[in-house]
Amino acid sequence: MSMSPVSGLKEAGLRNTGLLNKTSPPFSSMGEIKNFTVQSLDLDSFLSVKVKIRHDGLLDSSLKTNLEYAMQTLDAFPAPKRYDASLTVEGERQLVRITAGTPVLLYSVRLGPKGPELYQKVLVGARLTPSCLNDGHFAGHQCQDELESCMDQAKCILNHEVQNNPTGLSDVELRISCGELRLTYLTHQPQRSLVVQPRRRAYLGKTLNLEKVLELKTRLERSGVMGKGLLACFQHLLLHYTTFQEENCRLVLQSDGEMLELVYGRPDYHSTQHYIFTDSQNQAYSHRVQDIDLWEYD
User: Fold this and answer.
1) Is 232:282 a contact under the CB 8 Å cutoff?
2) Would you list the domain boundaries of the chain?
3) How many CB atoms lie within 10 A of CB 138?
4) Residue 179 CB neighbour total at 10 angstroms
5) How far, in Å, CA of 69 to CA of 84, rounded?
6) Tens of pLDDT along 16-27?
7) Cβ proximity of 187 and 249 under 8 Å
8) Cα→Cα distances 153→146, 162, 170, 194, 198, Å
9) Taking the model in full, what pTM does it have?
10) pLDDT per residue over 260-277, tens digit each?
11) CA 132, 135, 139, 141 torsion: positive or negative?
12) Cα dihedral angle (288, 293, 296, 298), rounded to 10 degrees?
């Protein structure tokens, strides 16, 4: 039996196709929404819409920045996330909505403190259950916690919540914030929020692997997370690499309001922990803590 590109998404029980601004970051107060209908939220469709917006004199600097960010981000998504979806883009004076098919995924792009941000919403109907979480919603996302993904953490929270509500939760929203992913599952009338915000954690294998440390450093630099202080922590780690060569270890780097955990050896137990941090001059220091419970006395 053949399946449409979004059949896996539709099986999650998504019924409502309207935008619900009540619980998502608010757009600026605007009047008319400029609507466009396309076959898919792909690069060709975005370029066509961009030409029409420019022709109508609506392409202000904010709209241009947000639309180009949406083009780049959604073009990298797997095909199922670009069909049966809608995208709302905020400009200085205008909202633009691009719709492909019958939306089951709702995207919006607006300017945040550090630039454009993409928000995703899934309207689950009357009740939220663990089965509403679908692999397709997380496609293309690299979770910042390599030991327990944000999807697994969300399922764990929902499984705990539905113990007293076996038929599902009727009054909640589930917000997942993980790196670039901002995904919200909404019921009709949410009265409270469940929040999943994984810590940044990397698993390096059985031992402290220099190549994996460098790969992680490169990834953070490319994503814009690496500030001067965190960079100083990495440099301290690389300069004193042999100092941290221990079994079953947890290594914590902290600076610039960011915290990063590196785990090697047993992922569920750490006999030794190292902390690398910076002072106000971005000078890095380290501190070692050993688990006293492991000490044996004669």
Assistant:
1) yes
2) 7-196, 201-294
3) 20
4) 15
5) 20
6) 333 333 333 455
7) no
8) 12, 14, 20, 11, 8
9) 0.77
10) 999 999 998 899 999 999
11) positive
12) 120
